[in-house]
Amino acid sequence: MLEELTISGLGVIDSATLELGPGFTVVTGETGAGKTMVVTALALLLGARSDVGAVRQGADRARVEGRLGVMPEGPVAGRAAEAGAALDDDAIILARTVTAEGRSRAHAGGVGVPATLLADLAADLVVIHGQSGAQEILRPSRQRDYLDAFGGQELLDVRSSYRHTYDELGAVSAYLDDVVSRRRERAREADLLRLGLTEIEAADPQPGEDEALKSEESRLGHVDGLRRAADEARLALSGDDTSQDVTDALALVAGARKSLEAERDHDGQLADLADQLATASYGLADVAADISAYAVSLETDPLRLAAVQDRRGLLGALTKKYGDTIDDVLSWRDRAAGRLGELVGDDGRVEELRADQRRLLDELAGRGGRLTDLRRAAGAELERRITTELSGLAMPDARFRVEVTGVVEPTRDGFDDATFLLSAHPGSDPRPLQRGASGGELSRVMLAVEVCLAGRHPVPTMIFDEVDAGVGGKAAVEVGRRLSRLARSVQVVVVTHLPQVAAFADRHYAVVKASDGSVTTSGVTVLDEAARRRELSRMLAGLEGSDAALAHADELVALGERERRT
Question: How many CB atoms lie within 10 A of CB 269?
């Protein structure tokens, strides 16, 4: 529900605040005073396209702020929370600013948001029927939505299950078409995968094998050089018993150690150095032994070298096709095996998919038929209800019809379309609304539909901007009466020029125009009973002080009071 609306710098309105509540609120004012700016402000607040021309002349920006009550656990609160917006005592504060340069900013719950989020939130909060809003009812898809909403929860549940089946059938059919139409392509893909897997299986590569073979080939190809280097290093470390003239590293370290050992008892530091030489001597002896063992292990093996080179060539052929390394080749093998399983499984699933398709077609036929039956039953009741409402709206001879007709191909909305038809005068055949209804008749049909949907409408606030255009006299009184009844189940805000409508409101705001000589400004004022009488008399006769107009205003106010007490 819309709790408060604050407007500044918008059109002719300099600054205004409307405190709203449940029931029926009306906004009136002289022509040109700016009462429609209230609806413009609401449209901006709810995500409509911004217009720099709406910024008040001389103002640097226009700003609209609204406080709307929401259910803390409802979908609006959930979407707001996802955007980072915070609730304030079970209400969300929306704001929209348009600068004189044309920049637009939107805020929800204290954080900046895209204007599209305001529109998304508004879809569950407010519906606006503008001066051309009655055109909405001319859309065939909208007429079907109205009918479904009137049909109640059972119809909506059947429609939901129908749509679920329709979507599931679409997915299964698309998959089946893909499997069948691409069977040859998939068979070729499967054959290529099998060839690759066979080639890899025959080679039987092992993780990291390519790097290990590369290292082994390098060692086998340089055995002579490796052995020569090892022998030279061994001789440098430990010498050769047959060569007495060679001074090796171990002998030199041993001599140095012997020199220090002779005097170690006289200085602790020298003793430490002697110990370090002892450690170095042991280490050198170990390295010399390891080098000697390494040299002994080196054998020239041309056959093994050839085998390693052949194996590397085989693995290289795999890495050219399936990956940079053998590990990559093995990863490709695993993916290919999974994909091949899918392709083979898809071929085997064709009959299963066709069986699923037949089952879903049967389910769709059953649910679609049930949906059609419910729509026809709802249409018959809606016909009766709206015809009765139109009679009360000064169209006593009108006949309203709902025609539910089949479609050539099932759609996500069912097997049928709904068309609203109207016969406004005796003897005339019912014709689709878009081909036979005048503006005033269309406004009354739309109002009758909304009244019939009262209590079933998912949106808690409805805004009407002069939808009573083209209506007067007794019909205007009945429009006011229906709006008052509608306001028992939803919040209703109406901008009107008709006193017969305004008299039924629970609260009355007037847009008052003032002038400082060059700039016209408008303010929005809530009217007490006396001010309301004067405003209604002005609307009736153009004269606030006319006794006859005041008396007539009193009659209208009394009529509205009786309706509210009913």
Answer: 8
**Quick one: 402 exposed, middle or buried, by C-beta within 10 A (0-12, 13-18, 19+)?**
buried
CB 389 within 8 A of CB 448: yes
Can you give the pLDDT at residue 135? 64
Give the separation between CA 16 and CA 39, rounded to whole angstroms.
13
Computed from CA positions of residues 337, 341, 344, 347, in that sequence, does the dihedral angle turn out positive or negative?
negative
The residues, ordered by sequence, that sit 6+ positions from 392 with a Cβ below 8 Å of its Cβ are 478, 481, 482
| Residues 6+ away with beta carbon under 8 Å from 298 | 223, 226, 227, 230
Question: Dihedral of CA 323/328/329/333: which sign?
Answer: negative
Mean pLDDT value of segment 385-402: 88
Question: Which residue matches tokens 């392509």?
Answer: 185
Backbone angles phi, psi at 517, to 5 degrees: 110, -30
Taking residues 346-367, what's their average pLDDT? 88
Which helix (DSSP H) or strand (DSSP E) does residue 8 occupy?
A: strand 2-10
**pLDDT tens, 25-49?**
999 888 766 777 888 888 888 888 8
Structure tokens at 90: 């079970």
Q: Residue 212: CB partners within 8 Å, gap ≥ 6?
A: none
What pTM did the predictor assign? 0.61
What confidence category does residue 293 fall into, taking pLDDT thresholds of 50, 70 and 90? confident
- Which of these, 443, 450, 457, 465, lies nearest to 41 by C-alpha position? 465
Tokens, residue 77:
């609160």
pLDDT computed for residue 517 by the predictor: 53
Helix/strand/coil (H/E/C) assignment for every residue in 76-126: HHHHHHHCCCCCCCCEEEEEEEEECCCCEEEEECCEEECHHHHHHHHCCCE
Does residue 379 contact residue 418 with C-beta atoms inside 8 Å? yes
Give pLDDT tens digits for 210-232.
Answer: 888 888 777 777 777 887 887 77
Q: Which residues pair with 93 in a beta bridge?
A: 67
Can you tell me the distance from the alpha carbon of 346 to that of 366, in angstroms, rounded to the nearest whole number?
A: 29
Please provide the distance, in angstroms rounded to a whole number, between the alpha carbons at the two ends of the chain: 23
Structure tokens, 477 = 């009184």
